[in-house]
Write a structure and sequence with these properties.
By secondary structure, the chain is an alpha+beta fold. It folds into 4 domains: 226 residues, no CATH class; 97 residues, Pdz3 Domain, CATH 2.30.42.10; 267 residues, 2-enoyl-CoA Hydratase, Chain A, domain 1 (Alpha-Beta Complex), CATH 3.90.226; 70 residues, no CATH class. 38% of the residues lie in helices and 17% in strands. The protein is built from 21 helices and 22 strands. The strands form 5 sheets. The chain has a 7-stranded mixed beta sheet, sandwiched between helices. The chain is globular, with a radius of gyration of 28 Å.
Length: 713
């Protein structure tokens, strides 16, 4: 029997009802002691309010009909079980009665179908965890890795399992894959089993902590997605978090929290926040209880992280006490830390600057770099008339003035990985480079087009300018980059941007029941073209291998993108770069043709493209070892070609490379995306060289194309 569970493609598993009183019963995984979640009384009216606001206010005008119902049904199933590892075909057949009823249900605020589907998912998810826990209890070393078995990389279009036996076989294969990954990483079977058992307990706890509000939010967002992927409902709690994200400020202690096992763990401290300044709370500390204003401590072990965050946040000047187990200490070593809450600025997402000193052909150049991670603004402080309110434009203007004082010759605005933010900030940031004129056209749901302008008559920088973008630059980033192109104020470099050309407005729902981020407008460049789906095409393109790791380019959703341009607006152009783009492209290509870093990027793209083409993962240890050896050899060859080309000694294995430290937070080698140290960012350096090419072309300095050499000081 054991052999069949661990080694056969037709494994029948162990009947869940027959589980013995093993560790499974003690971990909270057992699925059979729960009556299910139900909608809250407020959800009925909130659902109706959301339907009304989408129908009346969304850019796409459409009725709530059977097509929308069917799309909502499919979206919700994807939200619950995208990999098709929980529901049976019989479950789906039963749910199919809802496919064309969800429109009436949404109109009436009837959420029974949504909660019925979720409760079934929850039951299946806990059954899966119990099944896996039983296999782990028997011993993960019993898996047979000589068999020719595999798992699909993408199961989103796979048929739903027809039987319990087929479903349990998918669970077995998935668990087997995780065990094999650990084994290939050199972990012992005992360590693998312990880690997987712990993860199962944590996952079960997370499922059991799901609330009705979570289910409601997931379902109404499945409906909102039928309009477009940027329309979204925020629960009251998520609304607060979104406001913090947009303003880059909060009132609290300035600590980043996460969950490890049952404990709330400090994962980081915000620079300059009260926790960091106090010096008593450290990264890795476990918080076990919270007290507000000398009230009794509330135990938080096992609580959801968002619950803990709500307990710790509070108004500026108030006090919070924490019972803390220091990092690495024993459970009984508890101490009390008292912190006075303050306003905390989330500086990591603020704009930052640096100055590159580059010498080329005996001439010194100083290139300023301003990294803009997002378009933020503290709207609440703005509305209250706070003269010190924080915003992207204010911060960037200050940084540019500082760079000018340091003797900057040219400026790079780095918008890579900037997914957007405030429309107002996109317009105002553009105004730092445009004396006056239109910045973007915004089309409303009624078809009227409004032009947003900058008319202050003063640009902060009118010198040589380059804008860096990539496939994760979107929305407000595309407004800014598009305006710079249309006004011919600078050169745009990088890879084609994401292609989000819509504007969302936050609509508060009655009685504090959250907010709806509603797509109600579409924006167009001054030239009249839409960025939606199309994105911004750089004047000079860089290889972008990591763009392959993102999802396939979307088609613009219900809003669409192609063939929807509007009339251009008359505007003055600076005539700075367009006449030189061809020459700049030629010099760039000549310079990077044999450049080892760019050769590495091109080769990395081909390598990742091959990995992306794989459709299944083998569960045969021999096959995986052979595949891993081939992958490692390819990766090692790429790394060594780069090292040798730079005059460095090759390495014998990938383990000899400090690969963890060499990756940025977006998965790119840090040499190609390093916002904390632009001077050592290959692509920033090349962009600086393009600006120097522009200096040469406009100043009439004779030089042989491709013969330029530069050093960064």
């Amino acid at each position: 029997m054991t052999r069949r569970i661990f080694g056969s493609r037709t494994a029948t598993g162990v009947a869940l009802a027959a589980f013995a009183a093993t560790a499974v019963a003690d971990t909270g995984i057992r699925p059979g002691d729960w009556d299910g979640l139900e909608p809250l009384p407020s959800h009925r009216q909130t659902s109706v309010d959301i339907v009304d606001r989408l129908r009346d206010g969304h850019f796409v005008k459409k009725g709530l009909d059977d097509d929308v119902s069917s799309q909502t049904f499919d979206n919700y199933l994807d939200f619950l079980d995208l990999r098709r590892l929980h529901f049976l075909a019989d479950d789906i057949a039963e749910f199919e009665t809802y496919r064309y009823q969800l429109d009436e249900a949404l109109n009436d605020g009837d959420l029974e179908p949504a909660f019925d589907m979720y409760n079934r998912y929850r039951q299946r998810a806990l059954e899966r965890l119990a099944y896996e826990a039983n296999l782990i209890e028997q011993g993960v070393g019993l898996f047979d890795f000589t068999l020719d078995e595999s798992v699909d990389v993408d199961r989103s279009d796979a048929p739903w399992p027809e039987s319990r036996e087929a479903l349990e076989n998918l669970w077995r294969l998935d668990l087997k894959g995780r065990v094999l990954s650990g084994k290939l990483a050199g972990e012992s079977m005992a360590a693998i089993g312990e880690a997987l058992a712990k993860r199962g307990v944590n996952r079960a706890r997370s499922i059991r902590q799901t609330r009705s509000e979570d289910v409601f939010q997931r379902f109404v967002n499945a409906f909102a997605l039928t309009y477009d992927e940027h329309t979204q409902y925020f629960s009251p709690r998520d609304s607060e978090d979104f406001d913090i994200f947009m303003s880059l400020s909060l009132q609290g202690i300035g600590a980043e929290l996460g969950t490890v096992d049952e404990y709330t763990v400090v994962q980081g401290l915000v620079k300059g926040g009260p926790a960091e300044k106090g010096g008593e709370l450290k990264t890795g500390d476990r918080i076990v209880a919270v007290s507000q204003n000398q009230q009794p401590f509330v135990d938080i072990v096992g609580r959801r992280t968002d619950d803990v965050v709500q307990l710790i946040r509070g108004p500026k000047g108030s006090r919070v006490r924490l019972k803390v187990i220091p990092a690495g200490a024993k459970d009984e070593d508890v101490r009390v830390v008292e912190i006075v809450r303050e306003s905390v600025s989330l500086v990591d997402e603020s704009a930052s600057k640096s100055l590159l000193a580059i010498t080329r052909d005996g001439r010194a150049h100083r290139i300023g770099v301003v990294v803009v991670p997002t378009f933020y603004a503290d709207f609440r402080a703005m509305e209250l008339g706070d003269p010190t309110y924080k915003s992207t434009t204010r911060d960037v203007a200050k940084l540019i003035e500082e760079l000018k004082a340091e003797g900057m010759d040219g400026l790079i605005i780095d918008l890579r990985h900037n997914g957007g933010g405030s429309l107002q900030e996109a317009v105002e940031l553009t105004g730092l480079f445009v004396d006056s004129g239109p910045v973007v056209q915004v089309k409303s749901l009624r078809g009227s087009t409004r032009v947003l302008r900058d008319d202050d008559g003063a640009a902060v920088w009118d010198g040589p300018l380059a804008v860096m973008v990539n496939g994760r630059s979107a929305s407000a980033s595309e407004i800014f980059a598009g305006a710079i192109q249309d006004y011919d104020l600078g050169v745009v470099v990088g890879s084609r941007t994401f292609g989000k050309g819509t504007v969302q407005t936050l609509v508060g729902l009655p009685r504090g029941r959250g907010q709806l981020k509603l797509t109600e407008r579409k924006f167009y460049r001054v030239s009249g073209s839409s960025t939606h789906y199309n994105g911004i095409v750089p004047d000079i393109e860089y290889p972008a291998p990591n763009d392959l790791l993102d999802r396939d380019r979307w088609d613009g959703g219900a809003i669409g993108g192609r063939g929807s341009d509007v009339a251009p607006i008359v505007h003055a152009t600076a005539h700075r770069f367009s006449s030189h783009v061809e020459a700049l492209q030629h010099r760039h290509h000549a310079r990077v043709a044999d450049d080892p870093d760019f050769a590495y990027l091109r080769a990395r793209g081909e390598y990742l493209e091959g990995l992306q083409a794989r459709t299944e993962v083998s569960l045969s240890e021999a096959a995986r070892l052979a595949e891993k050896a081939a992958d490692d050899a390819s990766a090692l060859r790429l790394e060594n070609e780069l090292l040798i080309a730079k005059g460095q000694e090759p390495v014998a294995s990938l383990e000899d490379l400090d690969r963890g430290a060499a990756l940025s937070r977006f998965g790119m080698p840090v040499a190609f995306y390093n916002p904390d140290d632009p001077e050592n960012d290959v692509l920033v350096r090349e962009t600086a060289n393009i600006l120097i090419d522009y200096f040469d072309l406009t100043q009439g300095i004779a030089m042989v194309d491709g013969d330029a050499r530069s050093t960064v000081q």
